[in-house]
Structures are given as C-alpha cells and as structure tokens.
Specification:
heterotetramer, A mainly alpha, B mainly alpha, C alpha+beta, D alpha+beta, A: mainly alpha, Cytochrome C Oxidase, Chain A, 4 strands, D: alpha+beta, 2 domains, binds heme-A, binds dinuclear copper ion, binds copper (II) ion
C-alpha cells in the first residue's frame, strides 16, 4: 500500500499530500466508481441515490401535507393529489426504505465487521446496484409519462383500469425487487462463507444477525412480489384475467399475492433498523449488550413469523372470517420477539455509562417512537378494532411511526454512528442535536394527530375531508414543516462535514466490532491484517486515548491473525 | 471458510446418470398411464407423488444434492415450505369465500 | 425530551379544540350495538399500551439520568444476560396478546354473524356514488334505517373496489366487483351520521360520501313510503332531477356546461354532437334513451366509452323522467 | 457407482477476496441454491393461482385441458429429461476436463432445448389458430382452413345427418381431445352409462342419439351415448394460466439456452481446461430446476382427469 500523492477523493475533496491510501482515493474518475467492485464504494453510491430518493419522497410528502392544509382544493387537483400519495408511498417504499439500510450501511459495514475484504459476490453486488439504478429510472420515468394514481398497493381492478402509467411503475418496482433479492442473496452467502476465525454464529455482531434475517425475507418474499407485478403487467397489457374480475379474475387473490410479499417487507424495513439499535445502544451505554442470544434469535423469529400474518391487511377485504381469525391470531406472534428486543435494549442501558451523542439520541427516539408504532400495531392486529381503524389515518400514523419513527430514525442513528468510519470526518455534534430534536418534535406533531383523527374516522387517501377534521390536519401539516427544517439542517451539517469536518480517528465511539479496527476511512482492502474475532461487545477491551481522540484496543493482538500477504 | 478444510467435489459416474435417466423416462410413462385410469380424486395425488419422485431424483443425483452440503438442500426445501404455506392459506381462504362470488362473473369477456 | 413531546401533544390538543363529533378523545359517538365492545377493546389495548409505553420511557429516562457518562467513569459491571428475566418478559407479552386476540375475536364474531331477522338493503357502489336499494325497489343515495333494528347490507360494485364505512357504527366492509359482500349493524340512536368510502377508488374517492339517517321508531316506514312514490308525487322534471342525482349521473355529467368524465348535460337536448366514429348526431329522446341503455353503442367524440349501462337498473318511467329533466330549460335545473 | 475426487486447488485463479478455491466454489454454490429458492417462489405465484382456480373451478380445468395435446406434452417432458441428462453429463465432463465431451454435451443440451421450444411452438400455433388464448384474447373458433379436421358442418345438421344438436352449432372441430364448435366451445365426452345426463356441471347441449359421425371411434364400445359438454363459465381462466405458466417457463428455457451458449463459447476459448467448472455446475443447476418445474407443469396442465 503506497502513499498516494495529491489525488481527488471520490467525494471531490482534495486529499492532502502524503495522505494515506483509502478506498476513497484508490481509483480516480467517475468510472472507477460506477464499475467498482468494492463494497464500500457500492455502499456509498447506494447511500447517495437512496438519500436522493428519500428527498424525492419527502418532497412529495410536503406536497401532500400542504394540500391537506384545507379541505377541498388547496394547491392541486384531486387527480394530482392521488398521484402524489402514490408516488410518495412507492418512492419511499420501493426506492428508499426497502433497499435503505442493507444496501447502504449493510454493504459498507458487513464485510468490515467480518474482517473480510469484500462481500462474497462482488460482481453481483455491483449488478444489484445497477439494477437499482435501472429500476429507479423506470419508476421515475413513470412520473414523467403521467405518474400513477393507484396507491402504492396497486390494488386491482383499479390498477388494471386506470389510465395512468401503472406498467412503468410496476416494472420499475419489479426490477428493484431483483436488486433487493441479489443484495440479500449476497449477504447470506457472505455471512455463511466469510466469517473470520473465531467468529462463530453466536459471536457475530448483532448487526449481522439483523442483516441476515432481513436477507432471508428478501430472498423468500421478494420473488412473490416479482410474479405479482408481472401478473399485474400481464393483466394490463394482455388481459390475462387472473386478478381482473371483468375477465373472471379474483381481486382478493391479488391482495393475497401483494401482502404475501409486502407484509414480510415491513420487516425487511425494521430488522436492519433493530440491527443498528443493538450496536448503537451497546456502544453508547458502554456496556455489553444484554441478552445477546435472545436478540439474535428474535431476529430470526421475526423473519420467519413475518410470513404468517399477511392477511391482517385484508380483514375487511372480503377475506373469509375463518382466515381473518387465523391471521389475527398469528399477527400477535410477531409482537413478542419485538417486545423481547425492546426490553433487552433497555436492560443494556442499566448500570451503563451513557453518552448522549447524536447516534444515541436517535436510538432513544427510536425506542420512544417504535414503542408507539409497534403498540398501535396491536390495535390493528386485533379483529374488531381493525374493522373500524382499517384504511383510516390511524393506519397511516401506525406505519409512519414504525417506518419513520423506527426505520428512518435508526437509519439516521446508523448514519451518524458510521459516518466517521465511512468518510473519515466528524460532523458537528451541536447541530446534530438540534436537528435530532426538531425531527423528534416535528414527527410527533405530524403523526400523533393522525392517530386521533384516524380513530375518529378520517379515511386515508382522501383529498377532501370533512370540516371537522381541519384542526387535526393543520396541526399535522405544521409538524411536517418542522420535520422538514430538521432534515434541511441535517443535510447542511453533513455536507459541511464532508468538506470541513475534523479528521476522524479509527475508533471514535469505542465500538468493539471489527470495522473499528481499521483506519477511517478504511484502506482499499479493508484491513492490513487477517482478522480474528473475539466478543463483539467486549467494550472493556478498549480504552480512550486522548492523543488521537479515539479508542484503542488494550491488546491489539487479540483481533489480529496472520499479517496479510501482498495482494 | 478455513484453509485447512479439503476441497471436496463429487463427480457422478456415467452409469449413475444413465440409470437416473431411465428412471425419469419410466416415471414419465407412469404418470401418463396413471392419468388414463380414472381413480377419482386419487389421480391428482398419484400424479403428484410420481412427479415428486422424479423431482427428487433430479435433485439428488443430477443436482448432486445427495453429496452436497446439507444446508444447500435446506435452502431449497425451505423455498417449498414457504410456497406451500402460501398455497395453503390462499386455497383455504378462496374456498371459503366462493359462496359470495357471482357465478361466472366476467362482464369484460363480452358475452 | 419527553417533556418536549408532551408539550407537542398538548399544543396539538389545544389546536384541535373540543372534540367535534361529540365522541370521546379517541372515538366518534357510539351508535351501534357493536360500538360499545369495540371501544371497550380499544380502551383496553390503549391502557396496556400506555402502561408499557410509560414503563419504557420512564425506565429509559431514569437510566439516562442515572447512568449518564461522567468524566473518566466506566460502566459498572452487571450480568450480560439473565435467562429467568428474559423468559419473564417474553411470557408476559404472550399472555397479554392472547387476551387481546381473544376479545378482538369475540367482538368480531358478533360483527360477522347477522341476526336472522335483519332488514335487508342492497347496496351498490360505483365510481363515486352509493345507491341503496330498499326491498320495495326504491333506490336512494343515502342510507335510511330504522333505529333498534338489525339491518343487513348486501353489497356489490359496478366497477372497482369500494368500502362502506360508518365510523359511528364501527363497521367497514369492502365492496368488491364480482361478488356480494355483507355487513350488518343495529343502530341505537336516531340521527344523521357519515358514511365514507374507505377503499381508494380514484379521482373522487374522497367525495364518495353519503349520510346514514337513523329514523326514530315508526318513522322509517313512513319515510320509505313517501320517498318511494316520487315518480307520482313529483313532476317528471323534478323526479328526473332526483334520479339524475341519485343514480350517479351527476358524477360524470355536469349541469353547468363544464365537461367532467362525460359531456355536460347543460343544453344537451337538441345539441348536435360529433361522434367518435366521425358521424354526427342530434340528441333527441331516442338517443338519450340509447345512451342510457347502451352507452357505448355510439360514443361522443373526445370521451372515453366508460359510461356504465343502466339496462335493468332504470325502469322505463324513470328513463322518461330523466329525459324530461334533460329537456327542461336550464332554469328548471338550477332550482333546488 | 460414484467417484469422489479432490479438486486440485493449486493453480486455480481465486478472486482476491477469497482465501482459497474451495471457499470460492462453495460460495458460488450456496448463492446458486439461494437463487434457485427464489426461482421456486417466483414460479410459485403461478402455482398458487393454479391451485386456487383449480380447487374452486375444477370444471374449467377439466374442460380446458382436453385442448392440450398430451402426446406433445409427454414428448416435451422426455426432451427435457434428456437435456437434463446431457447437462449433468456436461458437469461431469467439465470436472474431468474432458473438453470435447463437454462441448458435445453442451451442444446436445442446446439442441434439446431448441427441440422443446419447437414443440411448444407447434402447440402454441394450434391454440392460436383456434383462438384458444388467454382471457382477453380468448375467442375459440373453428379453423375453416383446416377443412379436413372439421367433423360436422352446417350441412350435416341440414341434411339431418346429426340430430339433436343445438342449432347454432354450425361446425365442430376436434382440437386435441377437445371439440370446438363454431358458436360455442363444446366438448364431446362419453356419458357414464348409468348416470343421468344432467349432472351439476355437465350441462348438456343435447345428448346426441348416435353421437356425431367420426367421433364414434373415440369412445369405448360399451357406452354409445355421447354428451356434448358446454363450455363452463370462465373457461378462459384455464388458458390464461396455461399461457402464463408455459410462457414463463419458456422464457426460462430461452435464458438457459443463452447460458449454455455462453458456456460453449467459454469452452471454445479454453476456459474449462484450467480446471474451473463452477460455471457449468451453476448453469446445470439452473437447468435442472427448469426441468423440475416442467415435470409439474406437464402433470398439472396436460394430465388432468
Ligand atoms: C417498518 C414497518 C412496520 C412494522 C415494524 C410494523 C409492525 C407491526 N404492524 Fe404494521 N404496517 C406497516 C408497517 C409496519 N408495521 C405498514 C406500511 C402498514 C400499512 C400498509 C398500507 O396499507 O399501506 C401496516 C399496517 C398494519 C396492519 C393493517 C392495518 C390495516 O390496514 O387495517 C396491521 C394489522 O394487524 C399491522 C400490525 C402490525 C403489528 C402487530 C406489528 C408488530 O410487529 C409490532 C411489534 C412491536 C411492538 C408490540 C412494540 C414493542 C413492544 C413493547 C413496547 C412491549 C410491550 C408489548 C406487548 C405487551 C405485546 N400493521
Ligand atoms: C419510508 C416510508 C415513509 C416515510 C419516511 C414517509 C414520510 C412522510 N410521510 Fe408518508 N407514506 C408512506 C411512507 C412514508 N412516508 C406510505 C407507504 C404511504 C401510503 C401511500 C399510499 O396510501 O399509497 C404514505 C402516506 C402518507 C400520507 C397519507 C396520504 C393519504 O392517505 O392521503 C401522508 C399524509 O400526511 C404522509 C405524510 C408524510 C410526511 C409528512 C412524511 C415526512 O416525514 C417526510 C419528511 C421528509 C422530508 C421533508 C425530506 C427531507 C429530506 C431532505 C431535506 C434531504 C435529507 C438529506 C440528508 C439526510 C442528507 N404520508
Ligand atoms: Cu369508492 Cu373510494
Ligand atoms: Cu402487515
């Protein structure tokens, strides 16, 4: 590994003379990024495009909230509004949150945690990124050629009869599905085949357990989304009459197909979030994680049980009563492993040494918000209450609490936690706290009001609403603007950190997983040594070194296996 | 995973390949003949049993599962497990709500 | 942080003012026999949720305060797992959710099994209109029901999926093309309540509303009798106007000259229309009749052939009335 | 009966992030199996649709499958089994570095695959000619260009050669074991001697006294009564499912041909002389799954009774 001379790093910052070789400056030019096989670069490219998608989805959200400021028309027509929430939902789900954590942080961190040089199948990894790009382009193209107005669920027969660009959007989602499958497949293989010496299954960092469980769902559920969307496309283009009642098809069967994927998909969203939580809470409490095995097993349990509950989205759909009852009963089973995790995280904080740095602030808001989101799932899982609450804003609030309050908040925790590792720079802690606070307050104002109006009977996907819901909607809209300001601040200080941020030490937080053993940002081949793994939560093995403003291992040889031969 | 583990690959003999081939052809003949005998509801199950027998032969011998890591077989089988789950629930539900359906409803078929 | 959140909630509460529909903080008024049990379960789950939520937040806050990192201080040691404890907090939620499931299931059984003597009303959903067919053949755009009497709705859809939702009754059921779905309720308070379409169905989904009018004892029959006779009691023009509203025509046809999904009906009679196949047509009685019964036989240029047929759904006398209404000068159609 | 061999790992190029050839091979293999699992669930959706419709409307499937040609289906099954044999053989050849044998087997496999598609094309063509397509394109009709296959024509009714058949049947044509009528798709079947003609789903157009000429030989000698079965409602569903399943399968066959082509070119370039055989192994695994799926499709679509 030679010292590089002055080169441009990937994010455009000039690297100082004599700067160490890192994956960021290992190759130059756009092509060295677009066709890289390096999991770290792929992770960063994913991060860029996925945050862009989040921004796009967020813009749609702000249009939605602005329109709902008053009943009737505020800024757009009904047809435009219907397209807005469809695009908001579809972009947020298919482009942003499903690939979200695994493709970005998972890609970057997973091989590092394994002490490996890369994922097992780097070409597939790149292919998955390209599929994402293609799929996203097709989906975004649908916006240009007339957008879609079906809701992100594409229920037939509305989706087979509407005149909007359903085929383009579903084709996009179909391609994105394969991107997701390949990511999951890759992680399964990597975790099976590339664990370093000493890392038995129960010595894996819990982040890996979470990503692994996610991958199981990605691999087993996503193909069904694929065939569902393919059938929908065939329905529209050829008229195959499987889902379209006009041709003898069954629209409720479509819903079974859709939710067979899309329910497990919500755990594709939350499991990686939980995975991040286990790392962050332990590290910022300065404590060994509590109940490792329960947390690990509960991830697998959630993944498997998630396949048994899809019918809870269909309690009022015409699904038979017997099926309703079975699905309601099974639904509650998923709540148990989630509860286990929450309690274990709390117990981890017990007698700890808790630092309220930005990642931990997000972790604490996660606990707060996910508890609300998850607990409101109980109202929905229970049959008689769901009949009333289904398709109202109560559901909208529920899923924003779990998806935003859960996944997005944990994603932010993860971004702040690994940011120094990824870019080798620190961000402004003070601004991070301000934005975390704004997001927390804005979020609750936006969506807690929606629980109340939902249980009062405000249906979702409503462009127009009765006078008496106005106050709720307006409070919600105000909240969403606070939320937006929080995000703009975040975008500001993170961008600033890329250029001006203080240099980060290898281990700024005192994490004991392997990614903290290499430089920030890591060199091209990740580690100078072959690594071996110890207990990933043995935080006592580290001590603070004020001279480098970071943590160092008391006994570095405990993680080093043989030195690496020249590659 | 570890360097000291010996690489181990199975190579199927020509004889084995041919024997399996004969068995598969025989299985095909058997399914076709079985379908010509009217055994009521049993037909479908017998057919499925023979087809599954053929599938198992292909998987075990042509796909080397018999000598492969058990985990690979587990992965493959779990796909079937989740598929049956899907089929099972879907069949249970659709059968239950049949009475609500308007028989032969298909206004778009033009007749 | 929690304090701030409570401030947020408080602000929201103040902004909302008193509960607008006379319900409680969470729920609209209870107007059906099942509402009470639904609300009971809702409150039960709410109590459990609040308990666990407060537990979690309090524990979290206490830990954060008590074990806050202080200069040079390390975490104290404590076990990193405790099987008995972990099993406890696995089993307790298991028991709780079983209880919740049980009550939800029990409440649902009541909602799913209508009493034998229920009064039956046929409901049809179409974009973006509800029609309620009473046993005597009368069709209304609102749902009128007697108080204290089980009512069963047998529902079907003419196009896409809709969903009939009456928050005050706590009932909701999708209306699916190609099948009959059913729902029942027994209203307990006379009054007027909202009925929503809860399944997204396109442009005017949020305007696919109706009222539920619960009549005091004895008055429902009187209302039905009077309403059913409108062809006799009203002038043909008025009856036509009513039909035009009730039967969903105005969802697609305006009376003010603007084109909606279909051409405006303002001054339609005697108008010369260009047809999609290139010909022209002067609108007369026969053409209107044909448009209603076989809408796609001849399609007006510039419009999609999406108008549903009313064959078998409108009686001859009713079509006559509609024709009279469409013939009437604009003034007649303005008056309310 | 079997030979075990230790792979020579020395001298094989190993990607930089792997420690040795075995790890690389096992990773690829696990990856492939996971991919095959996704394939099962991908196709699985169609099997769900099949099961649901077949369970609820068996008459549609009974009716529809008569129009498929069992013998062509069986032929294709045999072809695919042969291709599986050659694919498995190709793996063996690659493992043993028998390059000529490998190339031969790859060529044979591709040949079989094309053969399969050819037979499929014949079948599709016949459906096409009679309008037996998926729902929106489902317009069954007699193909008058194939005059020789037409069993009964309008004249037969007029001359009284056939009695008792409803009037608007103007021509009957046999397609597979099914019979198409000009105005209605009907099926001529043996009526069980004792059973009354009007079973629930066997609504009859008319029990033709003699049975239409030309069909008499079809039946067994004992029961002479023929029932013309009317097309059940939503018969199009069968053909939708038929085309979806065989179509998706056909696309997989095409993909397989592409993959074998790639292997063949690699073989010609000498790639497999180095001892790498992972690629052949992976493609063969994929191909066997394509075969596996067909085994079920053949049973479920052609052999319904
Ligand atoms: C990240 C995504 C995510 C997650 C994690 C969840 C988690 C859960 N969801 Fe949610 N859900 C969605 C995303 C998600 N959901 C989406 C997107 C929709 C709507 C889609 C649409 O229609 O557009 C939806 C809709 C939805 C419905 C359908 C509502 C309807 O349309 O009528 C139901 C019904 O059962 C439901 C239930 C649950 C349950 C029981 C959980 C459980 O997993 C929750 C478990 C968690 C806890 C229980 C909290 C933690 C535990 C404790 C605090 C301890 C105490 C606990 C006990 C005593 C049990 N969800
Ligand atoms: C991940 C999922 C996700 C996320 C995060 C959000 C976020 C938000 N959603 Fe979401 N929403 C859905 C998924 C999501 N939504 C889905 C699936 C539906 C159902 C659709 C359907 O019915 O079909 C829905 C529906 C939905 C509705 C209901 C519409 C209706 O039924 O009529 C509403 C209404 O208020 C709403 C509002 C919002 C708001 C205000 C946000 C805000 O939180 C958004 C805040 C974000 C921003 C303002 C972007 C700011 C970003 C930047 C400035 C850049 C940041 C850069 C860096 C961090 C570097 N959403
Ligand atoms: Cu009708 Cu929504
Ligand atoms: Cu769900």
């Amino acid at each position: 590994m030679t010292d590089a001379t002055t080169v441009l790093t990937g994010d455009g910052q000039p690297a100082g003379p004599g700067q160490r070789d890192s994956y960021l400056n290992h190759g130059k030019g756009v092509l060295s990024w677009l066709f890289t096989l390096d999991h770290k670069r792929i992770g960063i490219m994913y991060l860029a495009v996925i945050l862009a998608s989040f921004f796009l989805g967020g813009v749609f959200a702000m249009f939605i909230r602005t329109e709902l400021l008053t009943p009737g028309q505020t800024i757009m027509t009904a047809d435009t509004y219907n397209k807005m929430f469809t695009l908001h939902g579809a972009v947020m789900i298919f482009l942003f949150i499903i690939p979200g954590i695994p493709a970005t942080l998972g890609n970057f961190v997973l091989p590092l945690m394994l002490g490996a040089k890369d994922v097992a199948l780097p070409r597939l990894n790149l292919a998955s990124f390209w599929l994402w790009l293609i799929g996203a382009s097709v989906a975004v193209a649908s916006i240009i050629i007339g957008a879609v107005d079906t809701g992100w669920t594409f229920y037939t027969p509305y989706s087979t009869t509407t005149g909007t660009a359903v085929v383009a959007m579903t084709l996009g989602a179909f391609i994105l599905g394969f991107s997701s499958i390949f990511t999951g497949l890759n992680f399964i293989v990597t975790i099976h085949k590339m664990r370093p010496e000493g890392m038995t299954w129960f010595r894996m960092p819990l982040f890996l357990w979470g990503i692994y469980s996610t991958a199981i769902i990605q691999v087993l559920a996503t193909p069904v989304l694929g065939i569902t969307l393919l059938l929908l496309i065939a329905e529209r283009t050829l008229g195959v009459g499987i889902f379209d009642p006009a041709l003898g098809g069954d629209p409720v069967l479509y819903q079974h197909f859709f939710w067979f994927y899309s329910h497990p998909a919500v755990y594709i969203m939350i499991l990686p979030a939980m995975a991040i939580m286990s790392e962050v809470i332990s590290v910022f409490s300065g404590k060994h994680i509590f109940g490792y095995r329960f947390i690990a097993w509960s991830s697998i349990a959630i993944a498997l049980l998630s396949f048994l509950v899809w019918g809870h989205h269909m309690f009022t759909s015409g699904q038979s009563s017997l099926t309703n009852m079975i699905f309601s009963a099974l639904t509650f089973s998923v709540a148990i492993p989630s509860a286990v995790k929450v309690f274990n995280w709390l117990a981890t904080m017990y007698k700890g040494s808790i630092r309220l740095a930005a990642p931990m602030l997000y972790a604490l808001s996660f606990l707060f918000l996910f508890a609300i989101g998850g607990l409101t799932g109980l109202f929905l899982g229970s049959l008689s209450t769901d009949i009333h609450l289904h398709d109202t804003y109560f559901v909208v609030a529920h899923f924003h609490y779990v998806m935003f309050g859960g996944t997005v908040i944990a994603f932010l925790a993860g971004i702040h936690y690994w940011w120094p590792k990824i870019f080798g720079r620190m961000y402004s802690e003070r601004w991070a706290q301000v934005s975390a606070l704004l997001i927390f307050v804005g979020f609750n104002l936006t969506f807690f009001t929606q629980f109340v109006m939902g249980s009062h009977g405000m249906p979702r996907r409503y462009y127009n609403y009765l006078e008496r819901f106005t106050a709720y909607h307006q409070a919600s809209t105000v909240g969403s603007f606070i939320l937006m300001i929080g995000f703009l601040i975040m975008a500001g200080y993170l961008l600033h950190s890329l250029v001006r941020g203080e240099r980060a030490p290898a281990n700024p937080w005192g994490g004991a997983t392997l990614e903290w053993e290499t430089a920030s940002p890591p060199p091209y081949f990740n580690f100078e040594h072959e690594m071996q793994a110890g207990d990933p939560y043995d935080l006592d093995a580290l001590s603070w070194d004020p001279s480098i403003k970071g943590y160092v291992r008391r006994d570095p040889s405990s993680v080093l296996a043989a030195p690496r031969g020249a590659d | 995973m570890s360097a000291h583990e010996q690489s181990f690959v199975h190579i199927a003999s020509v004889r084995l390949l041919l024997i399996v081939w004969v068995a598969l052809i025989f299985g095909t003949w058997l399914t076709v003949s079985a379908s010509n005998v009217d055994l009521g509801f049993l037909n479908i199950w017998i057919g499925l049993a023979i087809a599954t027998g053929k599938a198992v032969l292909v998987a075990l011998y042509y796909m080397h599962l018999r000598w492969d890591k058990p985990f690979n077989a587990f992965v493959f089988l779990s796909a079937f497990f989740f598929l049956f789950l899907f089929i099972g629930f879907a069949m249970m539900d659709t059968a239950q709500y049949q009475i609500d359906l308007i028989p032969g409803y298909s206004p778009g078929m033009g007749g | 942080m929690t304090a701030l959140n409570f401030v947020g909630l408080l602000l929201a509460r103040i902004a909302m003012g008193p509960d607008p529909d006379d319900g409680s903080f969470w729920m609209p008024p209870q107007v059906s026999t099942v509402a009470r049990s639904v609300d009971w379960l809702f409150n039960f789950i709410l109590a459990i949720s609040v308990f666990f939520f407060i537990l979690i937040v309090v524990v979290m806050v206490v830990f954060v305060i008590k074990y806050r990192r202080r200069e040079g201080q390390q975490a104290q040691s404590s076990p990193s797992h405790n099987t008995a404890l972990e099993i406890t907090w696995t089993v307790i939620p298991v028991i709780i959710v079983i209880v919740i499931f049980f009550f939800g299931f029990k409440g649902y059984l009541d909602m799913a099994t209508p009493p034998a003597n229920a009064y039956e009303i046929l409901v049809e959903g179409q974009k973006w209109k509800w029609s309620f067919n009473y046993p005597n053949g009368y069709v209304d755009e609102n749902l009128h029901v007697p108080v204290d009497r089980p009512v069963r709705l047998v529902m079907s859809s003419a196009d896409v999926i809709h969903s009939l939702y009456v928050p005050a009754f706590r009932i909701k059921q999708d209306v699916v093309p190609g099948r009959y779905t059913k729902v029942w309720f027994e209203a307990t308070e006379p009054g007027e309540y909202d009925l929503f379409c809860a399944e997204y169905c396109g442009t005017s989904h949020s305007d696919m509303l109706a009222h539920v009018i619960v009549h005091p004892p004895g008055e429902f029959e009187i209302w039905l009798e009077k309403a059913s006779n409108f062809l006799e009691t009203m002038t043909p023009v008025d009856a036509g106007r009513k039909l035009f509203q009730v039967r969903g025509c105005q969802q697609c046809h305006s009376m003010d000259g603007s084109a909606k999904t279909g051409p405006t009906m303002l001054g339609v009679f005697g108008r010369t229309e260009n047809m999609a196949d290139g010909g022209t047509i002067t609108v007369d009685e026969n053409y209107i009749r044909e448009s209603i019964l076989e809408p796609n036989a001849r399609v007006v240029a510039g419009f999609e052939p999406v108008m549903p047929t009313y064959q078998g759904r409108l009686k001859d006398a009713e079509i006559m009335a509609i024709i009279e209404y469409l013939k009437a000068p604009a003034g007649a159609s303005q008056e309310e | 009966m079997t030979e075990n061999a230790h792979l020579e790992t020395d001298g094989l190029a190993v990607d930089h992030h792997f420690e040795n050839a075995d790890q690389q091979y096992q990773s690829a293999k696990l990856g492939m199996w996971v991919f095959l699992a996704t394939e099962i669930l991908f196709f699985g959706g169609l099997f769900v649709a099949y099961s649901v419709y077949r369970l609820n409307h068996p008459e549609v499937f009974i009716f529809g499958h008569h129009f498929l040609d069992k013998s062509l289906g069986a032929l294709n099954t045999v072809i695919l089994i042969c291709s599986s044999l050659t694919a498995a053989w190709a793996v063996r050849a690659a493992q043993l570095k028998q390059i000529r044998m490998l190339k031969g087997m790859l060529l044979l496999t591709m040949l079989f695959a094309f053969g399969f598609l050819g037979v499929k094309a014949v079948e599709y063509n016949s459906k096409w000619k009679h309008g037996l397509l998926w729902a929106r394109e489902y317009h069954p009709h007699v193909d008058h260009e194939e005059a020789s296959e037409i069993l009964i024509t309008k004249e037969d009714f007029e001359t009284g050669a056939v009695e008792g058949v409803v009037e608007d049947v103007t021509a009957l044509q046999k397609v597979g074991d099914g019979v198409l009528a000009e105005t209605e798709t009907v099926l001529i079947e043996e009526a069980p001697a004792a059973a009354p003609a009007a079973e629930a789903n066997r609504s009859t157009i008319a029990p033709a006294a003699e049975g239409p000429p030309g069909l008499a030989t079809q039946g067994t000698e004992e029961s002479s009564e023929k029932v013309i079965e009317v097309e059940p409602a939503n018969a199009q569903t069968f053909f939708s499912i038929y085309f979806l399943m065989t179509g998706l399968h056909g696309i997989h066959v095409l993909g397989g041909i592409g993959a074998f082509m790639w292997l063949y070119l690699s073989a010609r370039r000498g790639y497999f002389s180095t001892g790498h055989f992972t690629r052949v192994d992976m493609v063969a695994l994929y191909w066997h799954v394509v075969d596996l799926i067909w085994i079920y499709l053949f049973l479920l679509l052609y052999l319904i009774e």
